[in-house]
Design goal:
TIM Barrel; 36% helix; globular
Length: 305
């Protein structure tokens, strides 16, 4: 996907499975869907605003297969790279999997991202994942499997399944928000990571736009990553708001670890955080956020080796 303007497009938060680790779901979360006509208009506006990539995500996009085909086709017409993130529920048989994948390939889908984890696979057979991947291989549709893990030993069996079937996959660290807030993180031994983040924005079905598609939507104490609503602002305006924010730029370049160190976090404390949790500690704290804003153009900007 292009490294310029790209966005996670939350067409709907509806999902047909309930996973214990889902960052997009939590008690009291509402299930919403964007109107198809609105989505088409937004994609056309995104094209005029030089958006190069759209990833359809949030709930399960392929519950609305016909809508997704229409939206992917619009992306293709506008020369926008398109990705769909799916749990693979629809690929119970190879015939059905071939039918769906070939249809998505025909309308111009660029890539299919298939979710896989010990939590997903309580609800969806891993044979579904194999069917979907093999169908992508058959029809020449780019794909990869997003292997969500908290790096426990019990995940080795799931990963071995992917390796035994020679499937393309990438481990993705569990994000401890939403339903996953109740999961106790295991100790992870690593070096002193910079914790940089690509900061891809997210558009919700209610047309709210956030600066980050991971945990930033849940920073409710400060709304630090909230950019605005497309009912009141243009796509280009909200992208510019994100792009001109120096702190967002520093998350991508300097990294959260250096920012936390500058604020006085001890190294022994920083290494205990996962990336999104460290981001929360900095940006969902009114005091820390205010301090970061005050020093962004002075001391913090020059906090380099």
């Amino acid at each position: 996907m292009n490294n310029t303007r790209q966005i996670a497009f939350g067409y709907s938060t509806w999902c047909n499975i309930k996973c214990d680790h889902c960052v997009a779901a939590h008690d009291g979360s509402l299930e919403m869907k964007m109107a198809l006509e609105n989505a088409i208009q937004i994609i056309e506006e995104m094209s005029r605003s030089d958006v190069a990539g759209i990833s359809f995500t949030a709930g399960e996009p392929l519950l609305y297969l016909n809508d997704m085909k229409e939206l992917v086709q619009r992306c293709k017409l506008q020369n926008i790279y398109s990705r769909i993130v799916t749990n693979g529920y629809w690929s119970k048989t190879r015939d059905r999997s071939n039918e769906v994948v070939s249809a998505l390939k025909d309308v111009g889908l660029s890539q299919l991202r298939i979710s896989f984890s010990r939590w997903h696979q309580k609800n969806v057979s891993r044979e579904n994942i194999l069917n979907a991947a093999l169908s992508c291989q058959r029809y020449g549709l780019d794909y990869f499997i997003s292997f969500v893990t908290d790096f426990r030993k019990e995940d080795d069996a799931q990963e071995q399944f992917l390796q035994d079937n020679q499937l393309k996959y990438f481990p993705e660290p569990l994000i401890y928000f939403g339903n996953a807030e109740g999961i106790t993180p295991p100790p992870v031994f690593t070096d002193y990571p910079a914790h940089r983040c690509a900061m891809s924005p997210y558009l919700s079905p209610e047309l709210d736009m956030f600066a980050c598609c991971d945990a930033g939507t849940q920073f409710t104490k400060t709304d630090a990553f909230y950019l605005g609503n497309l009912k009141n602002h243009s796509v280009d305006h909200l992208f510019q708001k994100k792009e001109k924010n120096l702190l967002f730029h520093l998350i991508k370049t300097m990294g959260l670890t250096a920012m936390a160190s500058f604020l006085g976090f001890k190294a022994s404390e920083i290494v205990k955080y996962r990336k999104c949790n460290l981001c929360e500690a900095l940006f969902n704290s009114p005091d820390h956020l205010e301090h970061l804003k005050e020093i962004a153009t002075t001391e913090l900007l020059h906090w380099t080796r």
